[in-house]
Amino acid sequence: MPIEIKMPALSPTMEVGKLAKWLVKEGDTVQSGDILAEIETDKATMEFEAVDEGTIASIAVAEGTDGVKVGTVIATLTGEDEGAAPAAEKKSEAAQPKAATEEPKATAEPEKAPEAPKAEAKPASTASQTQERRILASPLAKRLAAEKGVDLSGLTGSGPHGRIVKADIEGAKAGTAQVSAGKPANDQAAAPAASAPAATPAPAAAAKPASVDMAPETRKLLDDRIPHTVEKLSGMRKTIAKRLTESMQQAPHIYLTVDIRLDKLLALRAELNDALKSQNVKLSVNDMLIKALGKALVVVPECNVTFAGNELIRYARADVSVAVSIPGGLITPIVQDADGRSLSSIATAMHDLADRAKSGKLQPSEYMGGTASISNMGMMGIKQFTAVINPPQSTILAIGAGEQRPYVIDGALGVATVMSATGSFDHRAVDGADGARLMAAFKDFVEKPLGMLA
After folding, report:
1. Which domains does the chain have, with CATH numbers?
2. 427 noted as active-site residue
3. Angle at the Cα of 334 (from 332 to 339), degrees rounded to 5?
4. What span, in angstroms and rounded, lies between the C-alpha atoms of 325 and 256?
5. Confidence (pTM)
6. Marked catalytic residue, from 161, 228, 253, 427
7. Alpha-carbon distance 149 to 176, whole Å?
8. What DSSP letter does each residue of 157-194 carry, written as one string?
9. What's the per-residue H, E or C state across 380-411?
10. pLDDT tens-digit profile of 402-444?
């Protein structure tokens, strides 16, 4: 029986996605673990792997198709013993109603049509399988090898059964042109585009005007007087707009601000960085603030919660979501157990998470599920701001820039490096007094940073 390949739910909140690119074409033989396509979710572009083995019999959704619902059949896979016949049968059946309408006498003809393609398809499938045994490599690995000039025959694969995968190509040095993969790799890259016209795009809702909520007179003013362009919102931007609008509408925000002296934290950071040079680790101020928030959430667990209708969820661990600006939007990778981790571990994790966030390579588990958030705009020179709560969390800290300010030190006016931090709290779950206790604990850890290391 043919196996239907459906649009996967690559994150818990994903309802639709964009089939950004096919990395296989009809007739290709695939194995479990091969990368079939790149799919754009509401947060990132992710690779979609094959679960079953077989031959791609048909591609139902063309690459570039947006708004494909989760569960929609995007391709059909036949087992190794089935060949490509089902694909031919499917195409014949699809064409049959039209033939029946135009020429009723010919209705019996299409039933015989599958026989010829079946005989022709098997040699191609067999050849593809033989080739696969000679050099085990995923379609994506073949394409990347061609782009980098890497000879697949000289690589040892780290995938299942020694299969060459993307990571093996990325770690390989450019060598002779790849000629041993059976087909030129550029054919692999061009194949999806070539097959796209034959594919049947998934039904999509008619495009709505970009200014659906704009007053008619305002729209007319734009059209008639002001030069402008109209851009379609990305899936990420739509999600950001929806979630933050819901947050402001549903969660009554309360804002609490404290001024925090940074001098001792900056001095400790310099000392730690000097000691960590040999480990190639460099702490940022933000890394230390993540740790301080994690510690504060443990000290004041009343703020480490989620409001859930008739229930209140209390978290036993502080997983801090960190706002990271990426092209086209914002994402919040998570530093798990921010309270219990060392500063060097937080710094290493954040460097990796931020890099992969900007290249769209985070997994859903790495940006969904935090218990509280931190957003730092100090490096942009912003003195103070308020942040919108990141649902379903109840707490987010907005960090401003550290700057030299007049400050009372030991009863005398002096100059200190001071930053403003503003906490936004969901007042349904967090009382103002508890929010104030969290801000006081956070301030204490930052101003007495040795307490974070105890």
Report:
1. 3-135+182-198 (2.40.50.100), 207-241 (no CATH), 251-453 (3.30.559.10)
2. yes
3. 135
4. 24
5. 0.60
6. 427
7. 6
8. --SGGG-B-HHHHHTSPP-SPP--SSS-HHHHHHHHHH
9. HCCCCCCCCCCCCCCEEEEECCCEEEEEEECC
10. 999 999 988 999 999 999 999 999 999 999 999 999 999 999 9
